[in-house]
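It is worth pausing here to work through a concrete case rather than discussing structure prediction in the abstract. The textbook approach is simple: state the sequence, then state the predicted structure, then interpret. We follow exactly that order.
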Amino acid sequence: MRPESSARRAGHRGVPHTADLRVEAWAPTREECLAQAVRGVCESFLDLTGAAGVRRRDVVVRADRDEDVLVALLEEVVYWLDTEGEVPIDVELTPVTGGLRGGLQMADAGALPVTGAAPKAVTLHELAFTRGPEGWTCSVTLDV
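Step two, the predicted structure:
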């Protein structure tokens, strides 16, 4: 599904990018667009089919701009992958003043089939997060 095809639907896709990971996401709400970006990143390197949650991680992300919220949230994903070997398989986001609060249902990344290179860092290259007449869209590039 393409982001411009429906304002009522949410989704994500990987976009070909030389030596990096690029993800686009779209949704009717800001929080669902962010959650779709997280799912897109995780599904780019792991098969999440049938993944079971092992714990919940609660996070608070604060930033002045929506683009910075996106970067900070994905940096949380990279952090938990690097330090605990976990990835979110379900994401619940709630807006708070100056950012958002998230509940991440985590799975053991080592127990899931690997389908690609894991992200190492979020970049600012061609970063975008906008609200349009048909909902929210974002694009982000990660180093792998």
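Step three, interpretation. Helices lie at 30-43, 66-84. Confidence is low (pLDDT under 50) at residues 1-7.
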